[in-house]
């Protein structure tokens, strides 16, 4: 096996695990592998193109003397031409393991795809992962260099579990971040404001709806970076809810229900609904400044974010009927909705009768209820604020 001292090994492992936390660090990890194996290119193919779809592109990160070195990029690749397909997973191989030197030299794949990039010697492994199928890892050298040796293959095989582990962690983090983003968007589409706070009540993060509510200062506001209510009595109750959330969080084996309150608004509008809930964490994740509670805020008079197109499909309504339903869901009377839509009252009444018939309800209040409780708001694209 090639010599790999402790400092090199430590540096390479650090780079691999940094890469699993942030794709921007694959550059360093692959560059270290390139230097270790005296390669001119190191490539990690994250996704192969669909051979049945000419417009489908693969996804890879590669380092070497090339444009976009170290960046995750899309690429076209007719991989049905390569001789390196259908190899046993997690087993390092070279071109010499698959064919004679003469066959490789005359290979159309080498001539058309490799020669132009000064690629001749190839060492490769198809890495199996838990959730992303097989990822392809390739190291190459130019023709005037030594072929990859058995020692090179042994070293690559030795490093393979660490590379695979890094890729698996990256996949898990990507999935977690994607789900978290979807849930966050779903909450936003339901017009629910969310505020993350630490143990001192300092605001760590807020979504766009929370930002709007807090900037208005109507019921809730930010004072010295902390969440506060407009009126002293409400503020004392809010402080109590936050304190209780953290005390329950520290309790052994306790599972406390979220606490709620209404917050009076100086404008006279309907009170804000507030729920405070502690965020579970493991003992290893304790620490000052960590988000430990979330405050949910609902503005009962806020406008519905329902998608007209989705609502139309859900209830079988015409565009005009959908527009009227949205106005009614936003709290307008039939007369006010007719004025907002610039239609006659008789026309609005005719639309309402048709809506009742299609939705199976008999009263306007029922219509508003089923509209607000539907999934229509979840079909809305990202909101621009």
TrEMBL record:
Pfam families: GerE (PF00196)
Every HTH luxR-type domain range: 314-371
SUPFAM superfamilies: C-terminal effector domain of the bipartite response regulators
Top-level taxonomic group: Bacteria
Protein name (database record): HTH luxR-type domain-containing protein
Natural source organism: Marinobacterium maritimum
